[in-house]
Amino acid sequence: MCRRPEIFRTLFILLIAYYQLPIAHCLLSITFAPVKENEKYQVVIGLEVHTQLLTQSKLFCGDSAAFSTEPNTHISPVTLAHPGTLPKMNVKAIEYAIKLGLALHCDIEQHNYFARKNYFYPDLPKGYQVSQHTTPICKNGFVPIRVADRERNIRLNRIHIEEDAGKSLHDVDENYTAIDLNRAGVPLLEIVSEPDMHSSDEAFAYITELRKLVTWLGICDGNMEEGSMRCDANISIRLTGDTKLGTRVEVKNLNSIRNVKRAIDVEVERLIGLVENDQTIIQETRSYDADNNSTFSLRSKEDADDYRYFPEPDLSPFHITDDYLVEIKNGLPVLPGVLIQRYIKEFKLSDYDAAVLCDDKAQAAYFEAVIKYTDNYKAVANWMLGPVKSHLNDRNIAYDAFTLPAEKLAALIELVETGKVNFGIAASKVLPALLLQPEKQPLQIATEMNLLQESDSSSIEQWVDEAIAAMPDKVKQYQAGKKGLIGLFAGEVKKRSKGKADMTMVTEILEKKLNKQ
Ligand code: ADP
Ligand code: MG
Fold first, then answer.
1. Is the CB of residue 68 less than 8 Å from the CB of residue 182?
2. What span, in angstroms and rounded, lies between the C-alpha atoms of 114 and 495?
3. Nearest ligand for residue 237 CA
4. Mapping DSSP to helix (H, G, I), strand (E, B) and coil, where does residue 230 land?
5. From atom 22 of ligand 1, which residue's Cα is the shortest distance away?
């Protein structure tokens, strides 16, 4: 998706080159006007991403951490902060934080403690949020991104553990705000980047990569719409070449990766508009309204908030031992970046195929399962990202719900590779039949449906003769040098054989006969 502007640009350029149409020039200047403006200004973006951890229970008590549509059902006295209740640390959250930190090349802080961040808000029962303050569990590190074939590492400032607040619902009652405390106390990782991104495409790629990693590690379901991943975008602009950061605005409530991109785009336009009109940018927190694709001010942020941080007295500091770190490191799954390189080097896949296969862990696992039965790696990638993927897309399901045994797909691929069925027929006829009868072998299905390719040379010769006889003028043109016409003859043979002729043989025989005549 992030390549789309590049594609459009290329299309326009091709259009101009081909037609030399003044109208295309005109369209080009309209479409890409903002790019021109951005050359005067550099956009600077830093993202804060909150990811909800997939632990069974909350960060400091045994209440379920699962998403629930029934409000206030996961609320023990600890969540409600009744007097006398005490927090107890959920060790799984620490394990997950370390996993992510290691996957993102961070330094892991071994001495940790929690602090109270005090503020008053109705969905915060304790009156403070328990968070890590000066000692985030992960520091430094980076997220590798790729935009328009350019790779960059976006540096991380920190990843820290904290508890979530409840939810204030302003739209269930006309006069009152309703409070749902199911989410209060659910463990979060806050992932804070350095202000290293310079376009909404980079921000898009960054969150896409983060989402891929947290789901790959199984520490978050990555569902932005349900709020399991939430993003605040800090945005500023400065004159290109300046090194000092400009005044930033922070845009909250970004509940999809697409909205992060859209919000940045409108906000950058607004900021540039202010500066161009000699107005001052004030540091403020804004909200994004997806319906109107606009942002509006929530509060100004001129004074630093005073959260009166102090170490949480009810939780002891915790130390991460070297052994525990090694244990977690050894338990990490092979990460997508490593797999991509392996697929490129060992299986000779293209950068693109390798990267797309590793977009999703279940998809990569399926690829690994299929190549146990065939070493036609490129063909497996083509099938998985082509016909199988469109079947899954049509049903709106992903590879984790794909039930065809890997060996059956491998057998189907072998049928094509050995010339028994041609690719088009295998994809359009055998695959759908196989999905309905996965217990059968692809060869059996192709035989029963009478779809096996004809590689008997006498029948092919007959179709070739018929095709040649039917187009005498084309034969003359071919012989006069228009060699591209071979495709036309091949198509005719394909039609006469009802798609069953082995096309490699067809081409061979056609060339022999046409060149002889
Ligand atoms: P706060 O908690 O007040 O939002 P942080 O120090 O946690 O402040 O920074 C939040 C994010 O803002 C970080 O991702 C950082 O990279 C980004 N950021 C800071 N200054 C700027 C700026 N001038 N322009 C863009 N992003 C910025
Ligand atoms: Mg912030």
1. yes
2. 73
3. 1
4. strand
5. 248
pLDDT tens digit string along 321-348? 999 999 999 999 999 999 999 999 999 9
How many other CB atoms sit within 10 Å of the CB of residue 7?
9
Q: Is the CB of 44 within 6 Å of ligand 1?
A: yes
User: Residue 516 — pLDDT band, cuts 50, 70, 90?
Assistant: confident
Q: Is 387's C-beta closer than 6 angstroms to any atom of ligand 1?
A: no
Q: Are 463 and 496 in contact (CB under 8 A)?
A: yes
Q: Pick the atom of ligand 1 nearest to 305's CA.
A: 3
The pLDDT tens digits for 79-122 are: 999 999 999 999 999 999 999 999 999 999 999 999 999 999 99
Residue 48 Cβ contacting ligand 1 at under 6 Å: yes
- The DSSP annotation for 405-448 comes to -HHHHHHHHHHHHTTSS-HHHIIIIIHHHHHH-TTS-HHHHHHH
Element (H, E) at 344: helix 336-347
Q: How many CA atoms lie within 13 A of 123 on its CB side?
A: 20
Q: Extract the tokens encoding 343.
A: 């697929």
Other C-beta atoms within 10 Å of 169: how many? 14
Task: Using CA atoms of 162, 166, 171, 175 in order, give the dihedral in degrees to the nearest 10.
Answer: -130
Q: How many residues are listed for the chain in this entry?
A: 517
Residue 433: which residues within 8 A CB-CB, separation 6 or more? Answer: 445, 449
Whether the CB-CB separation of 188 and 162 falls below 8 Å is answered with yes
Tokens found for residue 30: 């309209």
CB of 44 closer than 8 Å to CB of 198: yes
Check if 284 has its Cβ closer than 6 Å to any atom of ligand 1. no
The answer to whether the CB of 225 falls within 8 A of the CB of 67 is no
* Cα gap 153→135, rounded to integer Å: 23
Residue 472 in tokens? 């005498």
- Ion ligand 2: residue ranges with CB closer than 5 A: 48
Residue 194 Cβ contacting ligand 1 at under 6 Å: yes
Q: Which long-range contacts (CB under 8 A, 24 or more apart) does 341-350 make?
A: 343/377, 347/371, 347/377, 347/378, 348/377, 348/378, 349/377, 349/378, 349/381
The residue type found at 44 is V
Query: 392 C-alpha vs ligand 2 centroid, how far in Å?
Result: 38
Give the separation between CA 114 and CA 310, rounded to whole angstroms. Answer: 9
Return the structure tokens found at 512: 């022999």
pLDDT at 34 exceeding the cut of 90: no
3-state secondary structure 282-306: CCEEEEEECCCCEEEEEEECCCCCC
**Contact (CB, 8 A) for 109 and 135:** yes
In the reported structure, the alpha carbon of residue 232 is separated from the centroid of ligand 2 by a whole-number distance in angstroms of 7
How far is the C-alpha of 270 from the C-alpha of 265, rounded, in Å? Answer: 9
